[in-house]
């Protein structure tokens, strides 16, 4: 099936040298006079206040939509950022206006010494939220210490409510542990506890209503995510369930009341009357939300990615290891942010364009 989306020529977005080439139908205007001194504001006036840091490439699951079936050539440990490098970069970004950091991976809870990293980041003046995306397997062991260290928000990934499917999708056991992690995070007061659910045609699309029912007595925000193409994940549009279709399928059974959402957020939010929890739909492919993008990413090997779907990267690790001063790092970051494009290339182009496997970006 081919969706009727505006398919932009790939050279108009993301891949082009010149970010000023804005697609004509797009609501952002490029400012050629952008000041390099405004490090985290791009040429379209988007201020980047949200940084996602991948702490590790390894994961204790092998989700089919995330990790290439044939495995990966893992980056040697000495090429990954050290704790001190992570803390230095976080401090630098927060000094320029970042107010929220999310720790991700791979599986961030596999990172040794994560409690100290959380504690150091949590005390950065100006940081308002320190979040983590995790598969939850190690959370029961670590949550109390992480919470005490300053972890304020949690997303736990769970794509199915059926144990046998969990094992097929993740190529590992652990379903019950994830449910325990979700209950524990709720008990520890994480609100809303976000649950990330990638919806795949022919695999878990028949669980949309089960997840909706699951929010009745749980204060969770189930976020249904469209399947996105990354290197080695076998993406094809036949497996993508558009968010509009997900919503329609749920609305056939439950009324959905829209809730106000953060204009920079990725999810459009709804509540079912009488349910404690709520539902979110993340339509990165069929209804991209690039115009409100305020996100930057640092990979575990220290590359800054200004767009999840762009292959452009600048290695802050290499710069730090060459002895770059903070001012030199800021100049590099500013130049990269200044090259950010108006929007991503559209799913059909993305499926053809090289990027990293998701497990080495961090979502
Ligand atoms: C890459 S994982 C890393 C953090 C952690 N290991 C976890 O499982 O949450 C971060 C998020 O990316 C999502 N994700 C990975 N590959 C994806 C894809 N191809 N399309 C949509 N979401 C994806 C996962 O479902 C997860 O919620």
In short:
The chain has 363 residues and is of the alpha/beta class. The protein is built from 10 helices and 12 strands.
- What is the string of helix and strand elements? EHEHEHEHHEHEHEEEEEEHHH
CATH topology: TIM Barrel
Biggest beta sheet attributes: 12 strands, mixed
Based on helices, strands and strand pairing, what is the structural class? alpha/beta
Binding site for [4Fe-4S] cluster 1: 59, 63, 66
Organism: Rhodothermus marinus (strain ATCC 43812 / DSM 4252 / R-10)
Family: Belongs to the radical SAM superfamily. MoaA family.
Protein name: GTP 3',8-cyclase
Quick tags:
363 residues, alpha/beta, TIM Barrel, twelve-stranded mixed sheet, globular, disordered N terminus, binds S-adenosylmethionine, 4Fe-4S, metal-binding, 4 iron, 4 sulfur cluster binding, metal ion binding, GTP-binding
Describe the structure in your own words.
Helices cover 26% and strands 15% of the residues. The protein has 363 residues and is an alpha/beta fold. The protein has a single domain, classed as Aldolase class I (TIM Barrel), CATH 3.20.20. It has a 12-stranded mixed β-sheet with strand order 7-8-9-6-5-4-3-2-1-10-11-12. Strand 1, helix 1 and strand 2 form a beta-alpha-beta unit. The relative contact order is 0.19. Bound molecules: S-adenosylmethionine. S-adenosylmethionine binds next to strand 3 and strand 5.
């Amino acid at each position: 099936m081919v969706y009727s989306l505006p398919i932009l020529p790939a050279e108009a977005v993301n891949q082009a040298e010149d970010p000023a080439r804005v697609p004509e139908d797009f609501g952002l205007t490029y400012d050629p006079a952008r000041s390099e001194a405004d490090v985290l504001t791009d040429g379209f006036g988007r201020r980047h206040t949200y940084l996602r840091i991948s702490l590790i490439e390894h994961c204790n699951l092998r989700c089919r939509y995330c990790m290439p079936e044939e495995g990966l050539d893992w980056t040697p440990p000495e090429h990954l950022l050290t704790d001190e490098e992570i803390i230095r970069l976080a401090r630098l970004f927060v000094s320029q206006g970042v107010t929220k950091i999310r720790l991700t991976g791979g599986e961030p809870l596999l990172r040794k010494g994560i409690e100290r990293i959380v504690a150091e980041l949590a005390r950065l003046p100006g940081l308002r939220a320190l979040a983590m995306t995790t598969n939850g397997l190690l959370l029961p062991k670590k949550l109390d210490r992480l919470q005490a260290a300053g972890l304020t928000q949690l997303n736990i990934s769970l794509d199915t409510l059926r144990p046998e499917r969990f094992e097929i999708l993740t190529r590992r056991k652990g379903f019950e542990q994830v449910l325990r992690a979700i209950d524990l995070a709720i008990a520890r007061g994480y609100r809303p506890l976000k649950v990330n659910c990638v919806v795949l045609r022919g695999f878990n699309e028949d669980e949309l209503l089960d997840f909706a029912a699951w929010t009745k007595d749980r204060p969770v925000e189930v976020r249904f995510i469209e399947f996105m193409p990354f290197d080695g994940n076998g993406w094809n549009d036949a497996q993508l369930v558009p968010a509009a279709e997900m919503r329609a399928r749920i609305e056939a059974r439950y009324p959905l009341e829209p809730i106000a959402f953060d204009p920079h957020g990725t999810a459009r939010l709804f509540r079912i009357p009488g349910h404690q929890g709520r539902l979110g739909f993340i339509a990165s492919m069929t209804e991209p939300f690039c115009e409100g993008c305020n996100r930057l990413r640092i990979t575990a090997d220290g590359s800054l990615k200004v767009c999840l779907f762009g292959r452009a990267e600048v290695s802050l690790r290499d710069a730090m290891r060459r002895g770059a001063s903070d001012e030199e790092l800021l100049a590099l970051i500013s130049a990269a942010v200044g090259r950010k494009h108006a929007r991503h290339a559209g799913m059909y182009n993305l499926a053809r364009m090289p990027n990293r496997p998701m497990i080495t970006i961090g979502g």
